[in-house]
Amino acid sequence: MEILMGFFFILVIVSAVAVAELRDLLAAALALGACGFFVGILFFLMMAPDLAIVQLIVEIMMVVVLVIALARTHRKSSEPESAKTTLALGVIVACVFILFSVAVVPLMTEFGSPQYNPEVSQRYIDEGVENTGSQNLVTAVLLDYRAYDTLGEIVVLFASVLGMSLVLRKVSKRMAEGKECL
Amino acid sequence: MSLIIQTVSRGITPFIFVYAIYLILTGHTSPGGAFAGGVAIGLLIVLWYAAFKLSTAERRVSCFTAHAGRILGLLGFLTMGTIALLLGKGFLENFLPKVAGHLTMSGVIILLALGVGILVGCETVLIFYYLFGRRPKGERR
Q1: What's the whole-model pTM score?
Q2: Would you say A165 and B126 are in contact if contact means Cβ atoms under 8 Å apart?
Q3: For residues B113 and A122, what is the distance between their CA atoms, to the nearest angstrom?
Q4: CA distances from B7 to A142, B3, B10 (A)
Q5: What is the Cβ-side half-sphere exposure of residue A69, based on CA atoms within 13 angstroms?
Q6: Fewer CB within 10 A of the terminal residue: chain B, N end or C end?
Q7: Per-residue DSSP letters for B8-63?
Q8: Chain B residues 47-86 with a CB less than 8 Å from chain A
């Protein structure tokens, strides 16, 4: 299982580098789709099917939106090839990041162990099914224990689309000339 | 788009719709959930746009319908919470009978999931309409 996960992890890194380096933007969008697909498989191998489903569906939407946007603009990136100073900067940032990881990773708790309040997590796992009537603990937490969180999330989504509709809505001619407001 | 893509997308539409509804309504017994199901419904409209035209998608789900749907979803979510409050329980508390493992008896969870699913689906559709819809007159596309 670890070998399989390592294989897909390497594929994720390779496709992510391809996204950044490809000059053909259509190919970059497809590489981004491949990257998200491999991340979805990784979630599935880590036994998080809920997350894998969301990852795949949202990734499909992102790729479709990017391809439609590309169909309306230019296919080639107009950005010039990266200069040597950019490369040097990248190497320096990568070195700092790796040193930081080496220093910090040993201080982290073991993967999968709770960060705080372990008794709360254990309580959810032990009594979740009987408290909420939901066999899927993810749904139990989302829509029962932490329903306030979900309410906040959907209000944020609601407000962002409201703002978007105000900025991007169709405007009549009189309104555009300032003779009439809203 | 080509005839093949149009025919395939016409045939695949009911299956995607059923899968999205399945994801929303069985989130409490199997993997999935309201957010994923809602985005799947939104993707259906994106498929119609990609295969046909924006006007085809807008004829089936108009901007007004999507706005009404998202307001309905949010109001449904809040109503469920308020009913629990009126019954003397906490806000958004599960006040309906619940049986673990039953397909529909998970109390208020299934209703909340329906509200979230409708809201997320309509938001996805609206984001898409506003990003790729027609622009005001005189503005370059």
Answers
A1: 0.81
A2: yes
A3: 25
A4: 38, 6, 5
A5: 12
A6: C
A7: HHHHHHHHHHHHHHHHHHTTTTSS--HHHHHHHHHHHHHHHHHHS-HHHHHHHS-H
A8: 49-50, 67, 70, 73-74, 77-78, 81
Mutation site, A62, A155, A157, A175, interface B, largest B CB count within 10 A: A157
Q: Does B112 touch chain A (CB under 8 A)?
A: yes
Asked whether the ipTM of the predicted complex exceeds the cut of 0.95, the reply is no
The span from the CA of A145 to the CA of A158, in Å, is 22
Select from B40, B50, B120 the Cβ nearest to the Cβ of A64.
B50
Please state, in angstroms and rounded to a whole number, the distance separating the CA atoms of residues A154 and B26: 20
pLDDT digits (tens, 9 = 90+) for A136-147: 888 888 888 888
Handedness of CA B93, B98, B101, B105 (dihedral sign): negative
Which of chain A's residues have a Cβ under 8 Å away from the Cβ of B35?
A: 54
Which residues 6+ apart lie within 8 Å of A13 measured at CB?
none
Q: How confident is the model at residue B54 (pLDDT cuts 50, 70, 90)?
A: confident
Provide the pLDDT for residue A82: 65
- Strongest mean pLDDT among B41-45, B47-51, B74-78: B74-78
